[in-house]
Amino acid sequence: MGVVTTGTLRTMQLDSLVGLTRRRRTPHPPAPVRLTVPDGMTAPLGCDAVAVPESFARAMTRRLPRMGCVYAAEGHWWWLVPSDSDVALEWPAPARYTAGAVVPDAARVPDLIHCPESAVPYTPPIPLYLALCRVTGTTPAWSRSVGTS
Prior knowledge:
By secondary structure, the protein is an alpha+beta fold. Helix content is 21%, strand content 15%. α2 packs across α3. The protein is globular.
């Protein structure tokens, strides 16, 4: 006599069990915090961001002919600039340049502390770079002498 069963037998391999355990233990990383363009504004060139410690940022504002959107959080000010504003520019320390206007290690979106009257959120990157070089005592990259090899 044979035994009749109506269910199906499923077996799991060791690698399947290990994978399930890892997925259960590994938390999903939170979505990155990004600076957003205020309502009513457009960012036709995409957005990146430049972060500067607040003490430098305050000194820089006097040297900027025009400021776009500026955000503040945790002792840093963040300026929105057009995407790829880091091409051919070496942003001096302690500035931090982030593609996609990502705010690394932030728990929340920084507060908007300055919004221009225009419909475009950008601070022009060259004046921002020059103001940063000035307050940090850095010679702009294009003004440095080329060494001989």
